[in-house]
Write a structure and sequence with these properties.
This protein is mostly helical. It is built from six helices and no strands. The protein has helices spanning 18-37, 42-46, 56-76, 95-98, 105-128, 148-174. It holds the Pfam family MST.
């Protein structure tokens, strides 16, 4: 039985196997980003802290890209999905961050939720085809190839790091704090 905390996040299982624990922590981190970005209008999603240009809207779009990159492109070898398939990354290496200002809160939330849902489906497919040891279809230039286990750990780290940013930005918007 999944325990949901006061912010609506599913608590990771206390005593479960490796895969359930990894997926539990990833969903917890995803839910933390959803909580930090919830209920904000365009101004809230475009707010910055100090000299940083990072926004909560940019975080949602960046994490959409990261979800697609690791679970679709790297793990399964798929081509980039829209909107990533038409981006000129050499013209703007931070396009995912920068272009978020032109998107509505509804678009940003829907994009992120859609890529998370797709990532969950692709993770289940990979788990059925090799489990955590399954290697990605795309590796690095040096020939090393990450496993699904590595990708899950990396995604937990990616969300945890950016959730720290989200904490600061959200507090600057409306004073909401927590974890």
């Amino acid at each position: 039985m999944t325990v949901i905390d006061e912010q609506g996040r599913p608590e990771p299982p206390i005593a479960a196997g490796e895969t359930a624990t990894l997926l539990g922590y990833l969903d917890y981190q995803r839910s933390t980003l959803a909580w930090k970005c919830s209920g904000l209008d365009e101004a809230g999603l475009r707010a910055t802290v100090g000299v940083s240009s990072m926004t909560l809207g940019g975080l949602l779009k960046h994490m959409s890209y990261v979800e697609d990159h690791w679970f679709s492109r790297a793990l399964h070898g798929n081509d980039p999905q829209p909107p990533w398939d038409t981006v000129d990354w050499s013209a703007d290496r931070d396009w995912d961050w920068n272009s978020a200002a032109a998107d509505s809160p509804e678009q940003l939330h829907a994009m992120w939720q859609g890529f998370v849902a797709r990532s969950r489906e692709l993770t289940e497919k990979a788990l059925a085809d090799g489990g955590p040891d399954r290697l990605a279809k795309r590796g690095w230039p040096d020939g090393t190839t990450p496993s699904l286990r590595w990708i899950l750990c990396h995604m937990i780290e990616e969300y945890a790091r950016h959730n720290g940013h989200a904490d600061l930005i959200r507090e600057s918007v409306d004073g909401v704090t927590g974890e």
